[in-house]
Structure formats: structure tokens, C-alpha cells
């Protein structure tokens, strides 16, 4: 069952530039509740407000999804991505497909990896957390003994990965490229685990010094 928040986003997907009254009626809540939800959705960067003149009098406020909000409804993009990857895999060897994903990840990380090269490991990990968030990943890290473990809370490629597990190379390669050190994947949602997680060992970090 959809939450009120999800219903508002769905309404704005189908009816952009809706007013608070429009949304309250569509979702079957009062205008005070609608305003509260919209304020939170704006703070989360999912909804934007614009003033629109409507005849004589004061302009009215209308709401629509931001680009980030639109990404909450990836069905069409997923279909196209899956079709493209299927066609690529029919024409190219598996190792070439994997190489493409690795090269993309390395390219994304290359400039920033050089910038943080001399930072202490924990500062690097905090930087990586912020940088991956810009790519749609949400990660957490913790120190276990002398090693470090990175857990993925969310992954933007989860749905594509169901049919094309090669995309999972992206996140692992991104982390390795940022750290300039190899990472070991120890859990994967595609294997039935609750999350994807990686270990960066003390030995691998020592090799990069």
C-alpha cells in the first residue's frame, strides 16, 4: 500500500503543476497535511514550487517533480537500459562488457581519486560516501579490527542488476578507484544477501602507501 508521500509523488508525475488543493483532493487529505508533506518533499529535493499567474490577482503556487523526483519512477529508463544491455551482450563478449563498466567507473573516479590520494583512510571513506551519494549510492563504513567494511544501503543499479549483474562492477570499481586499493566483495544482494558489502584489508591499504 502506498504512503501519502508516494501518492503525492505519483500524482505530480501524472499531473505536474498541481496546486495544494489539487493534491489534497487527489490524495484525500486536508490542505494542511498536503502542505506539510510538500514542505518535506521540497527539503528532500523531490518537489519544486513555482508561482504561476492565473487571471487577475495574486499568483498561485504550483508544484512539480524535480529531476531527482522523476528518478523515483525509473520504469521507462529501466526498460530501455535493459534492452540496450541485452543487445550489447548479444554482440560483444562478456569480458568486453565488463571492461566497459569498469572503464566508466574508473573514469568517474579518476580526477577525484588523485585529489584525495594523500588523505588518511577514514577521510577518504567519508569523501567516498559523499561522492557515491552523488551517483545515487548510499553507503556506510565501519572499522573491523584493522580492516574496513563498506555496506551499501541503497544502489541505483539494483533493478538493472537483476537482469544484468555485470553492472555490479560499477560500485566495486568506483570504491577501488577512489581508494587506489583493491576491495573484496563479501556480500551481494543478487546472491540472496541483505546487502552488498566490501572489505578493504589492511594489507591492500599498505600496498598503496
> What would the principal axes of the Cα set say about the shape?
elongated
The level-1 CATH class of the largest domain: Alpha Beta
Strand arrangement, major sheet: 3-4-6-5
- Please give the largest β-sheet: 4 strands, antiparallel
Q: What would you report as the Rg, rounded to the nearest angstrom?
A: 22 Å
What distinguishing features does this structure have?
209 residues, alpha+beta, Arc Repressor Mutant, subunit A, Muramoyl-pentapeptide Carboxypeptidase, domain 2, 2 domains, four-stranded antiparallel β-sheet, two-stranded antiparallel ribbon, 10 helices, 54% helix, 17% strand
Topology:
Elements: H1 4-14, H2 20-27, H3 31-43, E1 47-52, E2 60-65, H4 67-70, H5 75-91, H6 94-115, H7 121-134, E3 138-144, E4 147-154, H8 158-163, H9 169-179, E5 184-187, E6 197-200, H10 202-207
Antiparallel strand pairs: 1-2, 3-4, 4-6, 5-6
Helix pairs in contact: 2-3, 6-9, 7-9
What does this 3D model show about the protein?
This protein has helices at residues 4-14, 20-27, 31-43, 67-70, 75-91, 94-115, 121-134, 158-163, 169-179, 202-207, and strands spanning 47-52, 60-65, 138-144, 147-154, 184-187, 197-200. The chain is elongated, with a radius of gyration of 22 Å. A four-stranded antiparallel beta sheet has the order 3-4-6-5. It folds into two domains: 4-70, Orthogonal Bundle (Arc Repressor Mutant, subunit A), CATH 1.10.10; 75-207, Trafficking protein particle complex subunit 3 (Muramoyl-pentapeptide Carboxypeptidase, domain 2), CATH 3.30.1380. The protein is α+β, with helices and mostly antiparallel strands. It has ten helices and six strands.
Amino acid at each position: 500500500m502506498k504512503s501519502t508521500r508516494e501518492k503525492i509523488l505519483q500524482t505530480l508525475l501524472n499531473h505536474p503543476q498541481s496546486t495544494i488543493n489539487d493534491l489534497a483532493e487527489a490524495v484525500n487529505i486536508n490542505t494542511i497535511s498536503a502542505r506539510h508533506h510538500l514542505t518535506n518533499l521540497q527539503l528532500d529535493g523531490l518537489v519544486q514550487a513555482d508561482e504561476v499567474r492565473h487571471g487577475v490577482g495574486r499568483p498561485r503556487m504550483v508544484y512539480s517533480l524535480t529531476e531527482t523526483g522523476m528518478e523515483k519512477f525509473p520504469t521507462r529508463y529501466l526498460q530501455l537500459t535493459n534492452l540496450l544491455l541485452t543487445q550489447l551482450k548479444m554482440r560483444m563478449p562478456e569480458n568486453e562488457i565488463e571492461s566497459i563498466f569498469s572503464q566508466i567507473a574508473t573514469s568517474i573516479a579518476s580526477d577525484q581519486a588523485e585529489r584525495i590520494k594523500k588523505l588518511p583512510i577514514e577521510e577518504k571513506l567519508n569523501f567516498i560516501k559523499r561522492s557515491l551519494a552523488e551517483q545515487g549510492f548510499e553507503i556506510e563504513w565501519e572499522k573491523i579490527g584493522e580492516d574496513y567494511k563498506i555496506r551499501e544501503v541503497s544502489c541505483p543499479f539494483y533493478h538493472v542488476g537483476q537482469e544484468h549483474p555485470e553492472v555490479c562492477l560499477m560500485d566495486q570499481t568506483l570504491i577501488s578507484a577512489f581508494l587506489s586499493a583493491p576491495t573484496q566483495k563479501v556480500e551481494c544482494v543478487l546472491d540472496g544477501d541483505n546487502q552488498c558489502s566490501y572489505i578493504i584489508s589492511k594489507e591492500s591499504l599498505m600496498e598503496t602507501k
